[in-house]
Amino acid sequence: MKRLIICFFALLAAWTGAQAQHPSANAINAKPQQFTLANGMTLIVQVDRRAPTAVHMLWVRAGSMDEVDGKSGVAHVLEHMMFKGTQSATGSTAPGEFSRRVAALGGRENAFTASDYTGYFQQIPASRLEDVIKLEADRFAHNRWPDGEFAKEIEVVKEERRMRTEDEPRALLYETLEATAFVASPYRRPIVGWMNDLDNLRPDDVRAFHRDWYVPANAVVVVAGDVKVPQVRRWAEQYYGQLPTRALPERKPRVEPPQAGVKRVEVKAPAEQAYVALAWKVPGLHNITNPSAEDWDAMALTVLAAVLDGYDGARLQRALVQGQGANAKRVADSAGAGNGLTGRGPQLFVLDGSPAAGRTPAELETALREQVARIAREGVSEAELNRVKTQWMAGEVYQRDSLFYRARKLGANAMLNLPLDADDRLLAHLRTITSQQVQSVATRYFGEDTLTVGVLHPMPPDPQRRSRPMGGMGGRDF
User: Fold this and answer.
1) Is 2-239 CATH 3.40.50.1000?
2) For the region Disordered, what residue ranges are annotated (predicted)?
3) What is the per-residue burial (b if ≥16 Cβ within 10 Å, else e) of 329-350?
4) What's this model's pTM, rounded to 2 decimal places?
């Protein structure tokens, strides 16, 4: 946090001094442009001259989805190891040197691993963009580190798993829920990995994952900010475009088989409250340009989630937490809804919450399902739909004011093979979703055969369990 604040004020000072050179500072000057480099790597450039800063992101279409059983967590461990040094013909870097160099340039950097991809980013003064392109290209192609660095970092990852999953009851519930809901899909494995797999992971497992998937044709570079497109393209060709290419491993389809009945799982863990999560398998959005019937259903399900929980005082809040409405009784201390709209694998629609004092998880499950059943019976009002759509538009406009947000959206969409204008198309489509479409998906997707129920049963704290520090883990997760 201290580094972020220092860099923020440094960039703010640079921006203030450069106001006279940027008379159109409040305007976004161009639409994003996309190029394919000589070796198959994709480059996306978004010009935005509101401040003399730039965001550089490298995305690799390889996440936990690309792992195999027995090596779960390897994508995330590789993300950590990417900060541990390089070896190339032009020189080498030591562990931690990448971060020190970015800081010396006046920037900040980090990385993140997801199911579908891994990303690395730097936010720097625009004048230092070439330096970070050169650094990241070298790291992408020449990541090298000794076994001793792996031995230290794997312990960091294990501690991260303990703190973020094993010591977090709701995270533990969701890990168990996804492992139960999915049978064939690699989404059943946690991104951080199972502890047994981490115990048995070897340095060469991580090196092999890098060799297999960190291939130019499997990567996308996104640059956004106060830049010139021809110059960025020349730098990208110079540093990224010359990297050697090689064939990717064959991606075998791993289609999730149809579910044939409700699944239930219970987790006992030290916690203050019980918790309930209901997850239904639903279609995802794959074609935003010419949506199929399932694509439209995916968007209608997203609207349904927003009607239930998309603004202060939405249906779940009013009916279950506040206890408003005819014959209503307060059932929950919290209640929420969410739809997994996009991804390389199957998606889930989730309802969750904590029962109020004196209420049971079973009562909350019934109440949550009744809210969807009510929409299936009665539909939703135009006023509700309009409020949801207004909230979306306002939120999107606000978020687009962030250069980092726009770069991240471009990269994430590219990883899912969505077009550059996917967000504009999505908003346009969502604005057309009708009450009848929302009612239709509420009727068709919430039966027993696609449902997995997870219940957290609170237990008293274990007096033998050692306490853990509240500080960061020293890892590279965003």
Assistant:
1) no
2) 457-478
3) ebbbbbbbbbbbbbbbbbbbbb
4) 0.90
